[in-house]
Amino acid sequence: MRKTWRFVAAACVLVAAGLIFAQNKPASTGDASSRPADEKAIREAAQGLARAFEKGDAKAISAFWTEEGQYVDESGAPVRGRAALEKAYAEFFAKRPELKVEAKTDAVHFIGKDAAVEEGTFTVHAKGSPPNASRYSALHVRQDGRWLVALLKEWGHDEANRAKLDDLAWLIGTWKSESGDVQAQTEYEWVENKKFIRCKYTVTNKKDKAAPGSGTQVIGIDPARGLIRAWTFDSEGGIGEANWTFDGNRWVIDSSGTLADGSETTATNFLQRKGDNAFTWRSVQRTLDNEKLPDIGPVQVTRVGK
């Protein structure tokens, strides 16, 4: 049991929201169940497409699309069909050789048995030029057992719409919460000319007499991608990272981490503000070494100091 509640702290599954709770609750309804195998396949497809792009292989790129697949850039002009996609990419590579590419999947949302939406960032490094990052949203469908892109939309960063760390300024202060036998306290503060937010957390379990768990998290803007990201370091040696995005109603925090013993963890966390002095938090799609764990929350979190 101790590992169950400690792994949350080590992997930043719950710390990404600023709190740690690890009691096992029955899986709740309302969010799609975890599908680690399908999500892994979609993420691998995204990486495969990026590698084909980096090699300048237009035919290999088009093979990641459905026969009727479409690509739409920020101009709104679509390229329809696998043959047209291959031709368009071949013409692009003829003008822009020697590109280095990084594809980062931020989230995968399943919308059906054989359909999912992937959101991420595509960064292209051309020799002698600064990195060029763009956001994308891709609709994946499963055909003959393989996940393919049916529609991919890509757009550049609009400076006015880039994430701002000030959007999380309301978190500055001290917060506490309690769920069953687990109690947590997190303190957020500005550091480094308000370019980062640092939080220090402690978590205790009434049934576990060992020293409280603790750790540090740093939240900031990834300048290459224009996203809010967080990095967490647990006192036992675990590490974690997460991407924060706002869906108009709540913060969606896609996190992953590695425990001190090498175990891999993932989770999607939701943080919903309730005025200036409270928020709710829940965690779904939780896995430990690709095995599904129960959902947690919603948990009420209350401000106790500024």
Task: Give the topology string: H per helix, E per strand.
Answer: HHHEEHEEEEEEEEEEEEEEE
- Ranges where pLDDT stays below 50 over 5 or more residues in a row are 1-33
Number of strands: 17
Beta-sheet strand percentage? Answer: over 45%
CATH topology of the largest domain: Lipocalin
Count of helices? 4
Task: Describe this protein's structure.
This protein has 306 residues and is an alpha+beta fold. The protein folds into two domains: 2-33 and 162-305, Calycin beta-barrel core domain (Lipocalin); 36-161, Nuclear Transport Factor 2, Chain: A, CATH 3.10.450.50. Helices cover 16% and strands 50% of the residues. The chain has four helices and 17 strands. The protein has helices spanning 2-11, 36-55, 58-62, 82-95; strands at 65-72, 78-80, 99-112, 115-126, 132-143, 146-156, 173-179, 182-191, 196-205, 213-222, 227-234, 239-246, 251-258, 264-273, 278-288, 291-292, 296-305. The strands form two sheets. A ten-stranded antiparallel beta barrel has the order 7-8-9-10-11-12-13-14-15-17. It has a six-stranded mixed sheet with strand order 2-1-6-5-4-3, with helices on one face. Strand 9 (196-205) and strand 10 (213-222) form a beta hairpin. The relative contact order is 0.20.
